[in-house]
Amino acid sequence: MMSSTFHQGGELVYGRDGNATWEALEVAIGGLEGGAATAFASGLAAIAAVVESLPVPGRVVVAADAYSGTRRLLSDLASRGRLRFRTADIAHTGATLQTCAETVSGPGRPSGEADEFGAGGILWLESPTNPLLAVADLAALATGAHELGMDVVVDNTFATPLLQRPLDLGADLVVHSATKFLAGHSDVVLGAAVTRRPEVDFGLRRRRSLHGAVPGPWEAWLTLRGIRTLEVRLSRAQATAGELARRLCDHPNVEGVRYPGLASHPGHQLAARQMDGFGAMIAFEVRGGAAAAEAVTAHLGLLVVGTSLGGVESLVERRGRWEGEDYLPQGLLRMSVGIESVEDIWSDLDRALRAT
Ligand SMILES: *Cc1c(COP(=O)(O)O)cnc(C)c1O
Fold first, then answer.
1. Does residue 191 sit in helix, strand or coil?
2. 207 is catalytic
3. What percent of the chain has pLDDT over 70?
């Protein structure tokens, strides 16, 4: 609804507090995840609304290769004394829960109410992770974290609710960059948070109004329209990703293909149990490191070289080029598989790989 204000006396008052198009979008995303959704201006706005509402000092354990923006925000808040955080290799449940136990048992109980969201600490998960595609045992981690009094957040951007529903697996909150698969056409920036706990939902909505991190109605409408084709786009892209991953494994200029659908992926069995599909994201290493990987991207024609993911067009990027991502294998390319013909994608990729 393209309006900043509404006739007095109705349910809607002002465009920073409510909009009928947001509500339609929230019904759609909430329905898919099985909870109440709140739409935000971006994925990071949703993430910020969660971490900035933690009682001070917040205590967070985060996936070591979680989305770089999440880690940058946590570092920023930590540097200003608002929270303490530690990273964990979330593919290893026992080690992650050990880190959780150490993090929440330390000194300094936060100032908030004991039942406030995150008062006992937060475990922040992604699965599969961006960009290493590690798979976390969400149900086991949620159970273990709850036993420690922590709340569990899952960034479900890579899987989408069609492939994985973290609230059903015990998570307290799901966040999304709807910019990616949900909107699906690389033309929108928008985020969402979903929960089954009414008081958490209320707190997020309040924070959205306080911070003004509201989505534009046009962006909400485009996201809603994108969701209509989510299943069709995702099943096509996912089928293509599976085929490309298999072919990349046999490519002479590629080493180490990461795709949860490959039997060689350490999280394959777990992903097969926990997810309804393996998704459309692949990461692989080009033989020869950073220079060789950059040369591959320079030779791509059909495939778009750029950041972001989840669009109808395939996107390729060397993640190690970003600040904060220098821990990654330098020849690692992340590929978001689009809906182009598999043979068109393969011939472009194969040609670029052989040109290095
Ligand atoms: C892109 C992304 C985000 C951030 O979302 P924006 O919409 O870009 O703000 C968060 N998490 C993951 C996993 C992402 O890929």
1. strand
2. no
3. 98
Q: Which helix (H) or strand (E) holds 36?
A: strand 36-40
State the Cα–Cα distance between residues 24 and 15, nearest whole angstrom: 15
Neighbours of 113 (CB within 10 A): 9
Ligand 1 center from residue 125 Cα (angstroms): 13
What burial class does residue 195 get, using C-beta atoms within 10 Å of its C-beta: 0-12 exposed, 13-18 middle, 19+ buried?
A: buried
Please give the Cα distance from 100 to 294 (Å, whole number).
38
Ligand 1 pocket test: which of 65, 157, 315, 317 has the largest number of ligand atoms within 8 Å of its C-beta?
157
Residue located via tokens 């939902």: 201
Side-chain-side CA neighbours of 22 within 13 Å: the count stands at: 26
Cα 8 to ligand 1 centre (Å): 36
Decide if pLDDT at 25 tops 80: yes
Pocket flag, ligand 1, residue 191 (CB < 6 Å): yes
Best of 177, 187, 194 for a ligand 1 pocket test (most atoms within 8 Å of beta carbon)? 177
Q: Tokens in use for 183?
A: 């909107």
User: What pTM does this model have?
Assistant: 0.96
Among 355, 1, 336, smallest CA distance to 186 is for: 336
For ligand 1, whether the C-beta of 179 sits within 6 Å is yes
Per-residue pLDDT reduced to its tens digit, 116-171? 899 999 999 999 999 999 999 999 999 999 999 999 999 999 999 999 999 999 99
158 CA: nearest ligand 1 atom:
13
Alpha-carbon distance 284 to 156, whole Å? 21
69 lines ligand 1 (CB under 6 A): yes
DSSP assignment of 256-289: EEE-TTSTTSTTHHHHHHH-SS--SEEEEEETTH
Nearest CA to ligand 1 atom 4: 43
Handedness of CA 259, 95, 99, 35 (dihedral sign): positive
Radius of gyration of the chain from Cα atoms?
Answer: 20
Is residue 16 part of the annotated active site? The answer reads yes
| Residue from 59, 180, 207, 233 carrying the catalytic annotation | 180
Q: CB of 130 closer than 6 A to ligand 1?
A: yes
